[in-house]
Amino acid sequence: MKRWIEMLVHVTRLLTExxxxxxxxxxxxxxxxxxxxxxxxxIRKLPTASARTxxxxxxARR
Length: 62
What we know:
Helices cover about 50% and strands about 0% of the residues. By secondary structure, the protein is mostly helical.
């Protein structure tokens, strides 16, 4: 288990250095397609994205 955690930390550092994130957000609300911009709507229409982003879907833990 320790080796697995070390690997995850290493991968996280590599990705952070590669993409230079400015922050992150956790989404716990329902998806409202009417509030999406052009880019977000285009991504949502991709075959793999549309299967994962269902309108009105929300996190049950909320």
